[in-house]
Amino acid sequence: MAKKMKITLWLSSFLLSGCIPSYTSIYHTPEVSGYVIELKSLQPIQDAIVKHNNFPESQTKTNSQGKYQLPAISSKEFKLLMPAHSLKNYLISLSHNGNEIIRIASATRLMRYIEKIDLGITIIDNQPQQIAKITNNNFIPYEQLKDYFIENALLASCDQNLAVASLAQLNISRKLYMHYQSQHSNSNHSPKLKDYLILTYQQTSQLWEHLEQTCSKTLQDYQLMNAIFEQVQDEASLQSTSSILN
């Protein structure tokens, strides 16, 4: 009798708290849309492949205008639906000719209804082997960062695919900055160039922030790791400010 009463009380409190067992559609990713352009020409890329990182079998391609719409992934499941709301970073892969960029789409962790995220412009570099030089001695050279996070992983164990994508994104931002500096005094330069530069550094900042969360830091390298991530974030902030770009 006491056991039945405990179960009854547990179920009552469970239902009153808003946890309702239900067989319903659960969205594992948001629907994502946007445009893809090429770094050097700033022109749309057709047939770039776009996919959810966790569901690579579901993918789409950009059209002649560089536009894409990647459907959400859903399934029917029995879930205890909580009246809570928390956000999660969903990784989106965009690639062309084997050159990949990772974007982050923030959406609800447990989606009961479809959420649509517009990622705007994504720039892909079809010549990633060309490394941009740093324009400030306070910035960390590409090869040094590569040594830290990829080739020798000197400082920490981080998500390697994300580290590669983060370095690629930073290199794109640096190359675009150099392009902006060379074209700024040219009356024929693209009026969108400044907007693209600010956008790419914002994307760089977001991706490096996510990368930092994947790194397992030790007490020995904690301060140095923090300093490196802080330097990259400072670069992204400085290079995209209006005072620098005017």
What's the SSE pattern? HEEEEEEEEEHHHHH
Structural class given helices, strands, pairing?
alpha+beta
- Nearest-angstrom radius of gyration? 22 Å
Helix count equals 6
How far is it from the N-terminal to the C-terminal residue, by CA?
78 Å
Proportion of residues in β-strands: 25-35%
Q: In total, how many beta strands?
A: 9
Walk me through this protein's architecture.
With 246 residues, the chain is an alpha+beta fold. The protein folds into 2 domains: 24-124, Immunoglobulins (Immunoglobulin-like, Sandwich), CATH 2.60.40.10; 142-245, no CATH class. Helix content is 38%, strand content 28%. It is built from 6 helices and 9 strands. A 4-stranded antiparallel β-sheet has the order 4-3-7-8. A hairpin with a 2-residue loop joins strand 7 (87-96) and strand 8. The longest helix has 24 residues, at 160-183. It starts with a helix and ends with a helix. The model has no long low-confidence stretch (mean pLDDT 84).
Topology:
Elements: H1 2-16, E1 20-27, E2 31-38, E3 49-52, E4 55-61, E5 67-70, E6 74-81, E7 87-96, E8 99-108, E9 116-124, H2 142-151, H3 160-183, H4 193-214, H5 222-239, H6 242-245
Parallel strand pairs: 2-9
Antiparallel strand pairs: 1-6, 2-5, 3-4, 3-7, 7-8
Which characteristics define this entry?
9 strands, three-stranded mixed beta sheet, alpha+beta, about 250 residues, four-stranded antiparallel beta sheet, Immunoglobulin-like
